[in-house]
Amino acid sequence: MARTIKVNYLARVEGEGALTIRFKGDKPSAVELRIFEPPRFFEAFLRGRAYLEVPDIVARICGICPVAYQMSACHAIEDALGIRTDGTLRALRRLLYCGEWIESHGLHVFMLHAPDFLGYEDAIAMAKDHREWVTRGLGIKKAGNAIVAALGGREIHPINVKVGGFYRVPTRTELSVLLPALETALGDAEMCLDWAAQFEFPAFERDYEYVALRHADEYPFCEGRIVSNKGLDIDLHAYEEHFAELQVPHSTALHSVVRGRSDYQCGPLARFNLNFDRLGERARDAAERVEFVPPCRNVYKSLLARMVEIIQAFDEAIRIIHGYAPPDAPAIAVTPRMATGHGCTEAPRGMLWHKYTLDETGLVEDARIVPPTSQNQKCIEQDLWQLAPTLAAMPHAAATRRAEQAVRNFDPCISCSTHFLRLAIERED
Amino acid sequence: MPTRKKKPKLAVFKFASCDGCQLSLLDCEDELLVLADAVRIASFAEASSRVLRGPYDISLVEGSITTPHDAERIREVRAQSRVLVTIGACATAGGVQALRNFRDVKEFARIVYARPEYIDTLATSTPIANHVKVDYELRGCPIDKRQLLAVLSALLSDRKPSIASHSVCVQCKLRGNVCVMVAHGTPCLGPVTHAGCGALCPTYHRGCYGCFGPAETTNTGGLEWALVAAGASHEDIARTYATFNAAAPPFRRAQEEQLVQIRPKEGRRG
Ligand code: SF4
Ligand code: SF4
Ligand code: SF4
Asked: Which range is the signal sequence, renumbered to this chain (chain A) (predicted)?
């Protein structure tokens, strides 16, 4: 008998999407993650803007991960202008990014995803029975936000990020006052990992191609080569040669594939699998204690990868603040020139690739942005194809919940996956 | 006689937006659980799978209207809402998406998508108040979460929320900042921008770029000489007005005033 699982409005994800799985007998006949977030034409708006305005404009692509957009844009423009932020300015950028990872992962783990594992419709209902965990989660999230607000001016769409550095760098005190809250939240995060490790993770594995940045000696934020567990190892300038985007009728977002292969996964689980050896001691110990080590092919455990990354981000933030002394200048001086530059950083949800072409006065001639959720969209659908036979055997309501949970594994950010200005490639070469 | 009142129903609705303004509510980490005790969260897709039917006592609306379907949906939301509060520049002015209002959207869609026929979009991004009656407006891109909490607590205790309408300059002086325009010659839209952020940018040594939209009374003509004296060209000034509140009438006019001064030169060149 044909049966359809339909979720008309996916809740607890950022942005607007819907999900349909159609069955013929026990076999799935169609899987559609439909994204109907209205198209937003950011790349078009960027044409003709001054390079200094770009970080402010691209932040508005996503209210959940504005820092990621600002970082990828700054790095791409700095690449075009031939400058590099080093030393303290580079450390401050990592600190800002730590804050965003904590805030964004904290939101997802405690408010959006954990309720799935414990059987609640939201964190507020969950708080009735598990108040201390929700409170800890909110404390973690708040500590992450405090970093972004101190350094960026505010949590959402920070105003202090500039091509070449910052408008103003913090005093030592402005950062060191954060330390007690960060220490507490780090301890809480370790407890929360132990707690989350006891969740019941559905037995589901797939042989993913994981793609993430990899840096010579750091857990990746803003720099590195693009690597995968299937042999990819490229400079980020070569991104377009190795990845393609396809348009599908049911979505305003484009689907990404590795050329010559197929779907891939980016995000916390990909980073964890590819960069476990780059984690600090504190995060690695915590992960090993709960026996969460690579290779992990169960995408439901991305929740644990997020927890490990929260620990890593707190640990690193504390180290950066301890070592901080204000630099002489808040930003490197910049002279515009005609050039093209690339930037790729690790947004909370995965790789975020930008490319800009500037004219001789520093105005943008062309911009291209590839956000993580469109890279993961095909991977999500492939998961659902494989999950479908299990779903067919479940009662309808439970099957629907399980399907939604599978989508949430990716923490999809639908708002930021719909703003393309590019000829879509219909067929893969 | 006191009757036991049912908790008011709070709903959050999203239109074309970046989700940042509704995230402000989840960013109230200290107040969230208290607020959740005081209201019934009846619809908040970003945070909950639960959807209770209307009518709703307070509806927060984020985002602008950019599709025919959304133009319909906002009417349904209004019909279900006792008090409707728009949150953020997208909802109050059309947001950054209103930049499309001055350009050819079909052209955009053609360049963006190989199969533009799949894409359903309007040529404009318009504020909620162009479509339905709005009771209160919270400015900003994003809104300030303290302002949001103040408005919610006023509404929950049946008080009329009061939202300051002066300029960023007033807040900047209250904060005791050194004026970046006077001291460093940094162009700043503070004199014509709506208060609410606490003069954040000047506090971080940069000029205001107008993310809270126009103040109640604006003298953009009067600001022009100061911006030019600070080294901004007419092109620069026009671009600065054309960001997150580009379609708000005073900013729209200010932008046109600048463009008019550029065009004759271009004419001569061509
Ligand atoms: S006003 Fe700004 S922060 Fe709010 S939803 Fe719109 S773009 Fe996002
Ligand atoms: S810095 Fe800007 S907002 Fe502050 S007083 Fe000067 S012009 Fe006004
Ligand atoms: S100073 Fe101006 S641009 Fe900066 S946050 Fe305030 S209103 Fe927005």
From this structure: none
Q: What angle do CA B122, A18, A145 make, to 5 degrees?
A: 85
| CA separation for the pair A389, B257 (Å, rounded) | 63
Identify the nearest ligand to the CA of B125 by its number. 1
pLDDT confidence tier of residue A414, bands split at 50, 70 and 90: low
What percentage of chain B has pLDDT greater than the value 90?
67
Identity of the amino acid at A199: F
Looking only at the bridges linking them, the beta strands covering A350-358 and A364-370 are antiparallel
Which residues line the pocket of ligand 3, CB cutoff 6 A?
Answer: A 159; B 168, 193, 197, 199-201, 208-212
Tens-digit pLDDT profile for residues B155-171: 999 999 988 889 999 99
Asked if pLDDT for residue A427 goes beyond 50, the answer is: no
Interatomic CA distance for residues A404 and A208, integer angstroms: 20
Ligand that comes closest to the CA of residue B21: 1
Backbone angles phi, psi at A268, to 5 degrees: -60, -40
* Nearest-angstrom CA–CA distance, A180 and A193: 20
Under an 8 A CB cutoff, do B236 and A50 touch?
yes
Q: Which residues pair with A356 in a beta bridge?
A: A341, A367
Residue B185: other Cβ atoms inside 10 A: 14
State pTM to two decimals.
0.93
Q: Which residues of B touch A142 (CB under 8 A)?
A: 29-30
Nearest atom within ligand 3 for CA of residue B172: 1
* Separation in Å, CA A201 to CA A108, B49, B62: 16, 20, 35
Q: Which residue of B has its CA nearest to A109?
A: B47
Residue A416 sits at the chain B interface (C-beta within 8 Å): yes
pLDDT of residue A252: 60
Q: Is A50–B141 a contact, with Cβ atoms under 8 angstroms apart?
A: no
Distance from CA of B103 to the nearest CA of A (A): 10
Residue A256 vs residues A172, A210, A251, B212: alpha-carbon distances, Å = 43, 13, 13, 36
pLDDT band at B1 (very low <50, low <70, confident <90, very high): very low
Among all bound ligands, the one having the nearest atom to the CA of B200 is: 3
Torsion of CA B251, B253, B255, B257, to 10 degrees: -140
Residue B104 has what pLDDT?
Answer: 65
Query: For chain A, how far is it from start to end, CA to CA, in angstroms?
Result: 38
- The model's confidence at residue B105, banded by pLDDT at 50, 70 and 90, is low
Counting one residue from chain A and one from chain B, the pairs whose CB atoms sit within 8 A come to: 181
Nearest atom (ligand 3) to Cα of B212: 7
Average pLDDT over all residues of chain A: 90
Ligand 3 pocket test target in B193, B204, B245, B251 with most atoms within 8 Å of CB: B193
What Å distances lie between residue B201 and A222, A255, A392, B159, CA to CA? Answer: 25, 38, 55, 31
- Max mean pLDDT range (A18-32, A38-52, B102-116, B126-140): B126-140
Cβ B94 under 6 angstroms from ligand 1 = no
ipTM of the complex: 0.92
Q: State whether residue A52 sits within 8 Å of chain B by CB.
A: no
Centre a 10 Å sphere on the Cβ of residue B4 and count the other Cβ atoms it contains.
4
Range A209-228 average pLDDT: 96
- Contact between B179 and B156 under an 8 Å Cβ cutoff? The reply is no
* Average pLDDT of span A360-368: 94
pLDDT number for residue A419? 38
